[in-house]
Amino acid sequence: MKNFRIACLLALSLSFITGAGAQTAYPVKPIRIVVPYPAGGGIDVMSRLLGQQLSQRLGQPVVIENKPGAGTIVAAESVARSAPDGHTLMMTTDATITINPHLYAKLPYDPVKDFAPITQLVSLNQLLLAHADVAASNLKELISLAKSQPNKLNYASYGSGSQPHLAMEMLKSQSGIEITHVPYKGIPQAVPAAIANEVQMTFSGAASSMAHLKSGRLKALAIGGKNRLALLPDVPTFAEQGFPEIPSNAWFGLFAPAGTPRDVIAKLHLEISRIVKDPEFQQREVLAKGYESVMSTPQDFVSFLEADSVRNARAVKISGAKVE
Q1: Who's near 5: CB < 8 A, 6+ residues apart?
Q2: Which secondary structure element, helix H or strand E, spans residue 31, and what is its range?
Q3: 142 near 136, Cβ under 8 Å?
Q4: How far apart are the first and last CA of the chain?
Q5: Domain map (residue ranges) of the chain
Q6: Strand 180-183 to strand 291-293: parallel, antiparallel, or no bridges (unpaired)?
Q7: Which DSSP string corresponds to 156-196?
Q8: Three-state DSSP class for 64?
Q9: Looking at the DSSP assignment, which residues form a beta bridge with residue 128?
Q10: Contact between 51 and 64 (Cβ < 8 Å)
C-alpha cells in the first residue's frame, strides 16, 4: 500500500496532538474491546484474559464484544466510527489492516487513517493441520497425494482472503497442486470441520489445536515461522520443507480510533505491557499456547504494519482472491 507508513504515522500523530494538553480523565466508564471473530478462538481467549486484568488495573469493567462478519469489516467499521476517547478498542489480526486493503475493491473504513495503533501483543505461527486419515505426514507427501487426486482434497479457511486461504493458495501455486477451498466463519468452525473430516485440512495456532494433536484426531504437517515451535519440536517449518514464502505467521494487535488522546494510548500501552510481561501471564497465557510476546511501541507497530502490508499484497495477488 503506497504511503502506508506516512498515513499510519499521521493517524497516530492525531492522537498525539489531541493529547498534547492536560491529562485526559480515563477511564470514566466501561471499556469495550471489539473482537472481529467468533467466541472461542485464540484471539477471543487472549482478549478476555487481558480484559480481566486490565479491568483490575484501571478500575472499570472491560467488556469483550465479539462482532464477526464480512472478513472483520463489520467490527472495524464500528470501531472506526466510535468516539476516540479510549473506551472503544479493537483487538484484531492482519486481516483488518494489512490484507483487506488488497482484497476488497472498496472498504467502509480506512485501515490506516481510521485507527491509532497501540501495540502488537503477540505473534503466532500457524500450523497446517490434516485429519488423521489423510495419507501424508509432511508437505512432500501431501503434494504427492494431491497430485494423484486433483481437487479431491479440500481445506477450510476463515473466509476468502483470510490467512489460511492465502497460505494454501500460495502453496498450491508454488507446488502445482489443486485443493478445493471451503470457507468457514472462523477457527471455532474450521477446526471441528477438519476433525469431523468434512474438510481434510485447515490452519490454526497451537492454542486452538494442541488438544486435538495430542488426541490424534489431527496431525500437523508444517508450521510457519523461521524456527520450530518448542511445544511441537517434531513439526518442521514450511521453510525447512522448501516453501519459505508461505504466509503463515499471524499476529494479535490492539487499536483505538484515530484521534484518541496520546496520554490514553500511553496509559493503555503501559498497563497492557505490564500484564503481558508478567512472568506468570507469559508462562501460562503466552508461551504455553505457542505465542511469541512482542508488545511493540505504537511507532514500532507502524513499521511492522508497513512491511506486513507489502507481504500480504503479494500473497493476495498470487491467490487471485478478490472481493467486490
Answers
A1: 302, 303, 306
A2: strand 31-35
A3: yes
A4: 18
A5: 4-124+250-319, 127-223
A6: unpaired
A7: EESSTTSHHHHHHHHHHHHHT---EEEE-SSHHHHHHHHHT
A8: strand
A9: 203, 222
A10: yes
Q: Is residue 271 within 8 Å of 54, Cβ to Cβ?
A: yes
- Sign of the C-alpha dihedral, residues 249, 251, 257, 260? negative
User: Side chain identity at 281, as an amino acid letter?
Assistant: F
Domain spanning 127-223 has what CATH number? Answer: 3.40.190.10
Between the CA of residue 195 and those of 153, 155, 189, 222, 292, what are the distances in Å?
Answer: 14, 12, 10, 17, 26
Q: How far apart (Å, rounded) are the C-alpha atoms in residues 87 and 64? A: 12
Residues 6+ away with beta carbon under 8 Å from 171: 139, 177, 238, 243, 246
Longest alpha-carbon distance in the chain: 68
User: Which amino acid, 170?
Assistant: M
Which residue from 285, 288, 289, 253 is spatially nearest to 268, judged by alpha carbons? 253
CA pair distance 315, 100, nearest whole angstrom: 12
How far from the centroid of its chain's Cα atoms is residue 38's Cα? Answer: 13
- Amino acid making up residue 192: P
- The CATH superfamily of 4-124+250-319 is Bordetella uptake gene, domain 1 (3.40.190.150)
What gap in Å lies between CA 202 and CA 9, rounded to an integer? 36
165, with CB counted inside 10 A (0-12, 13-18, 19+), is buried
Q: What is the pTM of this model?
A: 0.82
Give me the tens of pLDDT residue by residue for the chain, a chain 324 residues long: 456 655 565 555 555 544 455 577 999 999 999 999 888 888 899 999 999 999 999 999 999 999 998 889 999 999 999 999 999 999 999 999 999 999 998 999 999 999 999 999 999 899 999 999 999 999 999 999 999 999 999 999 987 788 888 999 999 999 999 999 999 877 788 999 999 999 999 999 888 888 999 999 999 999 998 889 988 999 999 999 999 988 888 899 999 999 999 999 999 999 999 999 999 999 888 888 888 899 999 999 999 999 999 988 988 888 777 776
- CA nearest neighbour of 250 among 114, 68, 93, 70: 93
Q: How far is CA 11 from the centre of its chain?
A: 21
